Amino acid sequence: MNLLDNKIAIQWYLVPAIAISILLLICAVSFAEEIDTTKAVIHHTDSGDVSAATIDQWHKERGWNGIGYHFIIRTDGTIEEGRAITKRGAHARGRNNFVGIALCGREDFTKAQTDSLTKLLEQIGVQSIERHHENCPGEGLDIEKIQIEILK
After folding, report:
1. Are strands 128-131 and 36-44 parallel, antiparallel or unpaired?
2. pTM of the predicted model, to two decimals?
3. Engineered SS bond to 80: which of 13, 28, 52, 147, CB 3.0-4.6 Å?
4. Boundaries of every domain in the chain
5. What percent of the chain is predicted at pLDDT more than 90?
6. pLDDT digits (tens, 9 = 90+) for 42-93
7. pLDDT surpasses 60 at 97
8. What whole-number distance in Å separates Cα of residue 24 and Cα of residue 18?
């Protein structure tokens, strides 16, 4: 075997290793997407007043990797942390890099909840909020009014 044969053998040996390294890098970058704290998706829990720990348990029982929301707002206005704000959420397909906030309840949210939501959004620096979908959160939350409040 001459020197040229050795170079070709080394190159063919490295090709799979390089390809695997590139694929791993692509996967790491796609899952390490930074959280855009200027945007938030607002949800309702469709339940009574429950803790972030309870929601975490529910999500784990479904086979998920724990609570998908970054914050839960209880009916008395208490804000509980869910998933760390530094971690990608699991709350809205295509928008999991936005902050995920869920209010306990479905339609009838308390003034304490809406006040806490507005304060939380301002503290985080959120500039734009979206509903999870047309019916979430329920009609009892005026998203447009809150959007105006946080931009003042």
Report:
1. parallel
2. 0.78
3. 52
4. 1-32, 36-150
5. 62
6. 999 999 999 999 999 999 999 989 999 999 999 999 999 999 999 999 899 9
7. yes
8. 10
Buried-exposed string 126-151: b where 16+ CB fall within 10 A, e elsewhere: beebebbeeebbeeebeeeebbebbe
The fold for domain 36-150 equals: Lysozyme-like (3.40.80)
Question: Do residues 53 and 78 touch, judged by C-beta distance below 8 A?
Answer: no
- Specify the residue for token string 């001459």: 2
Q: What confidence score (pLDDT) does residue 34 get?
A: 84
Q: How far apart are CA 111 and CA 113, in angstroms?
A: 5
- In this structure, the strands spanning 79-81 and 128-131 are unpaired
Angle at 99 between CA 97 and CA 104, to 5 degrees: 135
